[in-house]
Amino acid sequence: MANVPKIGKAVYQGPSILKEIIYGIALGLAAGGLWKMHHWNNQRRTREFYDLLEKGEISVVVADE
């Protein structure tokens, strides 16, 4: 056989600790950001509700017909 190049096999080296830490931090920040946006939206809706209630534009009492 004339110089036939050998094809190397991919060797699994196990998980990279640094990559795992970076992935975890990135996922944590993304999930935390989504949670904060959800929380801010709820705060805004609650604030708007109480502002309208205070102005008298809405009422929590059912009006009699």
TrEMBL record:
Main subcellular location of this protein, as a coarse class: mitochondrion
Spans traversing the lipid bilayer: 21-37
Record localization: Mitochondrion inner membrane
Record InterPro entries: COX5C
Keywords, ordered alphabetically: Membrane, Mitochondrion, Mitochondrion inner membrane, Transmembrane, Transmembrane helix
Keyword Repeat: no
Annotated family: Belongs to the cytochrome c oxidase subunit 5C family.
Function field: This protein is one of the nuclear-coded polypeptide chains of cytochrome c oxidase, the terminal oxidase in mitochondrial electron transport.
Protein's name in the database: Cytochrome c oxidase subunit 5C
